[in-house]
From TrEMBL:
CDD domains: YihA_EngB (cd01876). PROSITE patterns: G_ENGB. Keywords: Cell cycle, Cell division, GTP-binding, Magnesium, Metal-binding, Nucleotide-binding, Septation. Its cofactor is Mg(2+). This is Probable GTP-binding protein EngB. InterPro entries: G_ENGB_dom, GTP-bd, GTP-bd_ribosome_bio_YsxC, P-loop_NTPase. It comes from the Bacteria. The keyword Cell cycle applies. Belongs to the TRAFAC class TrmE-Era-EngA-EngB-Septin-like GTPase superfamily. EngB GTPase family. Residues 22-197 form the EngB-type G domain. Pfam families: MMR_HSR1. Necessary for normal cell division and for the maintenance of normal septation. The lineage of its organism: Bacteria, Pseudomonadati, Bacteroidota, Sphingobacteriia, Sphingobacteriales.
Amino acid sequence: MLIKSAEFVCSNTHVDKLPDPTLPEYAFIGRSNVGKSSLINALTNKKGLAKTSQKPGKTQLINHFIINDTWYLVDLPGYGYAQTSKKNRSEWEKFIRKYLLSRENLQCIFVLIDSRLEPQKIDLDFCCWLGEKGLPFMLIFTKADKQSIVKSDQNMAKFKRALLKWFEEVPTRFLTSSEEKVGLDPILEKIDAINLDFMVPPVS
Ligand code: GTP
Ligand code: MG
């Protein structure tokens, strides 16, 4: 898919203020600092579209971007940010989980995983929660440029094995580097294919 336009639409903490759910939507979620915002910028080839930072906890809101005037990419705050207070963490839980559970045009949740790390409980727990709720998700392993392909493959295989304890099938997986713009086309192709099947949800 060719990205012809990518524009910021709005930032929200309230699910009832989100754009009308008339276009297919894809959300990026994962641990703080895993590279969600960087990946949005790499996919759209627009540096600075989503705000990135070396420090975790940069993205705090539900940020909508409209792509080619036909679908939404959503940048979400990260989970597992140690510096956040308990109260903030439970606020995150509430509004992100509410968003994920109630957004009827949400076609797929892309869960980002740091390819340098062994499977982390927090990521596995989150995937299990998505599975329990029946929410469609795929895995995007990030920061592949930071180590050898062998190491990335090993960590991806370990993650797959860990998920197979709970899931019968492992979700689709992608290995990417936003820094080196690697592994991006397969994600856009997948989104393109899902967009073709999108039907406007009935008004509730
Ligand atoms: P929060 O908004 O805090 O949850 O973080 P985030 O997941 O949006 O991460 P962000 O995109 O802000 O990136 C965090 C840091 O990782 C930044 O310093 C990025 O430059 C770096 N980073 C992101 N992706 C890559 C990558 O593919 N390769 C390398 N080397 N660094 C990356
Ligand atoms: Mg971010």
